[in-house]
Amino acid sequence: MSAPETGTGGGPAPAASATTIDTLVAAIRSGPHGGEIGAVFDLTALAELKSAPAARWRGPDRDLTGTLFDQLRHSGESSAADILERAVRNAAGRTPEDLTAVGERLFERGWYDRLRPELLRLVQEHIAAGHTVVLTGDSGEFQLRPAAAALGIPYVLGTRPAVAADELTGLIEGEVFYGPEKAEAVSEFAATHGIDLALSYVYSGSAGDLPLLSRAGTQVPIAPDPVLAATAAEYGWAAPAVAPRTAPRPADYLRTLLGLLALLGGALYGVLRKSYTRDRRAMADALMKYGTAWPLWLCGIRLRVTGTENARGPRPAVFLFNHQSQFDVLIVPAVLGGNVTGIGKKELIRHPIFGPLMRFVGVTFIDRSNTDLAKASLAPVVDTLRGGLSVAIAPEGTRSYTAQPGRFKKGAFHMAEQAGVPVIPVVIRNAADIGRRDSMIARPGVVDVAILPPIEIGAGELDEKVAEVRQRYLDTLRDWPR
Q1: Which residue, 105, 297, 345, 385, shows the most beta carbons closer than 10 Å to its own?
Q2: Domain with residues 18-240, CATH architecture
């Protein structure tokens, strides 16, 4: 039965039928694969923006950025169109590149941490099934593209500001993508890309998308507004439960402060405990043991590790880990169990807390802004490996905005090849649950870590191995080992 073009109203909304993310994943995997199946994610499903706290923006674009962030917070509401039109009008005379930069800033500093992990999982399932995945919303395409790029979504459908002579005119091309306009745009896209909407999925949280939802074969309401919830209940659309994206609580701040003190206390205790040996390596290992165990315990963070035997041998090795959170600096040494050092950005040398600790355990600091200097500073790491000490490194070179690993750089693989040691992937599934990319506040929870078997790097195999190892991360994150 198709849905109505507009929502129902009046009276208490009946509850939508329930399903789970796991059920949806199973349906995607067992259902038809291929590009003729579409998966359209509206921004109201992908991210929880209505409850996003208001942000203070600085710099010359602060007014424009603030208005566009306010527009994102009203996604799925009719008022979003008015806010976007006002922002575009105020941006008249600017270049499209200016808006692109503002869109990236909005995502990286304003709302990446509002992405729903459950929806990111569904995005990856559709990509793995070969479906044509689209991100849409009533926002500008320039607001949506950074999220699409981070998630590997190839297509974006959003409102476009009009451009003339490489300058914004202050007007919108056509209409803002809301309601029937968005439904028509998606239908046109489907027709030109060979997509059968009757076999496709649409995810949304807004009743404004009822015209779009009515055209899909599978409608998935995500945290639906009251009108959409009532319609979903009437038509039997199953709405999976998703966890709210809440701000840290006062208890989280307190636990984090205690965890920081525990890190310092544990590190000092570890050094003193092994000081009688006068063996710097033994003291460094004890520093990492207690300097990670104590803060993890106090912050309520438990590690659930599979493949521990792969961390114990063979040694030495280059341990690769996908980097999502500030707290990876505790997670990785905790699961590797000593006789390992790392590589960090040179800015940390002067950090009043982490600088001295990282220097003591033998971390090599690199200048990421200068490729030649970075390569030169990695040369001694090969000697470290040949000397029997393992090295942990994030092959992405920086923290990612989602659980999906970004592009892997070759430096770690070069080191392993030159030293004649294997690489061992350390796959962290959900570190962002305890602390998102730029957050310094820890939340209690369980972090899953899988340590995969070692992979030898043969001569002349570098490009193939980089791609192979990254694919192992993707496969492991999709099908977590039991």
Answers
A1: 385
A2: 3-Layer(aba) Sandwich (3.40)
